[in-house]
Amino acid sequence: MVEAWFMDESQEDQRAPHRQRPNRAVSLEQLRRLGVVYRRLDADNYETDPCLKEIRKTENYSWMDIVTIHKDKLPNYEEKIKTFYEEHLHLDDEIRYILEGSGYFDVRDKDDKWIRISMEKGDMITLPAGIYHRFTLDENNYVKAMRLFVGEPVWTAYNRPADDLPARKQYMKFLADEA
After folding, report:
1. Which of 43, 100, 139, 176 has the most CB atoms at less than 10 Å from its CB?
2. What pTM, to 2 d.p., does this model score?
3. CB atoms within 10 A of CB 39
4. Which residues lie below 8 Å from residue 22, measured CB to CB, with a gap of 6+?
């Protein structure tokens, strides 16, 4: 089961858990109110999993690929890790399904505080368009993930500040409506 918590302010290694002391856990309901959708799937059988097939059909996830993030597998590894960890948003939802390994997605809450979401094998997450977020590996330094898109993939990340973009304005309206 996925675990999430409010992050501390430490500037130490981004791959560390960064839990506040005492830990301030974040529930799936709190994530849902931010527009973050979590699902648990059978990563051992992702190629034939009827649940994944149904999700892809229902959500119109017509495009997918698999990426491995590890120093021996990803060209320009150090540069990519730094880029993934820069706070940004996308104009479309970001959907990631962890097939092996583990890592962290960090998202901003309505008060602009960082929430760290620990992702491991079998976890699928959908981050809504317009949410500020970032990704890093954890201390295991390895993840293999499926990336899903509606239509052709768009890889453009808009680093913060990007508050004038329509996706961000729409996301802020969503947050206001949830309050």
Report:
1. 43
2. 0.97
3. 15
4. none
Count of domains in the chain? 1
pLDDT score for 26? 98
What is the mean predicted confidence (pLDDT) over 21-40? 98
pLDDT per position as a tens digit, 45-101: 999 999 999 999 999 999 999 999 999 999 999 999 999 999 999 999 999 999 999
Structure tokens at 173: 């309206």
Read off the tokens for 70.
Answer: 């590890």
pLDDT score recorded for residue 157: 96
Domain that holds residue 136: 3-173
Q: How far is CA 115 from CA 22, 91, 104, 106, 169, in A?
A: 15, 21, 10, 5, 21
Question: Exposed (0-12), middle (13-18) or buried (19+): which is 175, by Cβ within 10 Å?
Answer: middle
Does the residue 134 lie in any domain?
A: yes
Q: Is the pLDDT score of 1 beyond 80?
A: no
